[in-house]
User: Fold this.
Amino acid sequence: MTRIHLYDTTLRDGTQREGLTLSASDKVKIAVRLDAFGIDTIEGGWPGSNPKDAEFFRRVSSAPLHRARIAAFGSTRRVGVSCEDDASVQALMEANTPVVTIVGKSSVTHVQRVLETSREENLRLISDTVSYLSALGKTVVYDAEHFFDGLALDASYALATLEAARDAGASVLVLCDTNGGSEPRAIGDAVDRVSRRLRAQLGIHPHNDRGLALANALAALDAGCTHVQGTVNGYGERCGNLDLLALIANLQCKRGVQCVPEESLATMTELSHFVASVANLAPDAHAPFVGRAAFAHKGGIHVAAVAKEPSMYQHMDPALVGNRMRVVVSELSGRANIRLRAHSLGLDAQPVERAVLERVKALDHAGAQLEAAEGTFEMLVRRASPDYVVPFELREYTVVVERRAEGGSRARATVEMRVGGTSVRTSAEGDGPVHALDSAVRLALEPYIPVVLETHLVDYKVRIVDEHLGTAAITRVLMETAHGAERFSTIGAAPNILDASWDALRDSLELAVARASDAARTTAPPHMDTRRTTHETVTT
Ligand SMILES: [Zn+2]
Assistant:
């Protein structure tokens, strides 16, 4: 197979996704990563449409790119306006990129109803714009919008639009399934038909409205396309674009078609997560190849088998794309899940695995699924060890929430805790009852266990587990806590939000203490203040 030209449009088509916005500097950061990964062309935006994209093109010109070429995107000139006088076409020139991508109409209906012009004039728009830009030294990529729909409607016209672009100097003709309504067989037949009619490099730009973008891209490549357009994580309008990473993984890991250098392939998972975090979107845990769950094993029988031979229940080695096998602990687990999961945390669960498994199943039954709570799982293993010392205990708490006639409300929590043989009573206010409880607990612990001051909550999610029970339902709280560079998630489930929050909070603080004392053991002896006094602190 000829080498496939990888064309990324995350920064243009990808940002059409609802809820996704990227600043000019976000776009430059992503472009640098795409270049390092091995993408050939990076479409940066539509300089004629907004000042932010124009700023991106200014900034990216001095970015340290090694191989990728930057493309600016725009449409054919307007009806009745020459390229010299068309502001959008001139903005493409000002973007100062080596590659320019021009979108034009392939479908007669679009020409007549949307452009409101004649069939002949549309051919002139395509021809003029492409030849104008190529005469000025640009490499022109021609995107044939709605190509497959246009071909079905009036094949000879759709093909004539491609010929107009090719004859005017377009370097590649990209067949776009703009509405995402096509399917693999039709795509394959259409590519075949086009390549029999005209000699040109062909590309494919699929959308995922039928969940077929990847299948359509593969069908187009099988039929002779050698250029493919997609986005990282399949970001894009509606149901998204082709997920370019999934395509690359399919080609390189499964078909042996080299798309990016081998060492880049192993950074694919990191790239996917990097782009998600710049876009401020949660990575899709279930994305093929790069999802956190893509190689996760939960069923006890599966886990027992992959412990012996990983290939028994996974289609490839996750390390090829920089992912890893994970063992999920849940009520479906067997003892092998416990052992492997604990081992991946650097703990030996073998002596206590039966006790831990029983705890996992009991918690699962109570509504606290440990699959997403590695921190709580780690605490179960640590607590099951006979020499584990509980660093603190919550004996009692009272939380009062007042709503005032003059408006607003306030919460105050009072806690009684045991810390290293000492009884401590503290009170604190908070924005709400959970915040007040958290503040009072930290206040009680900080003189004795200063490490708690180094932890902070980064995410807090609440879900009602059994909605039809109304207020009698179980509340599940999932917390994510940061301690330096470490992050851990903990969970609690109880009939009320405060007890559930306490369980998750206790696990996160206890884990920070346990890990800190592991680290301290290798440097200095642990220190804990064990004065038997009652410490009373009140803050507001
Ligand atoms: Zn598109």
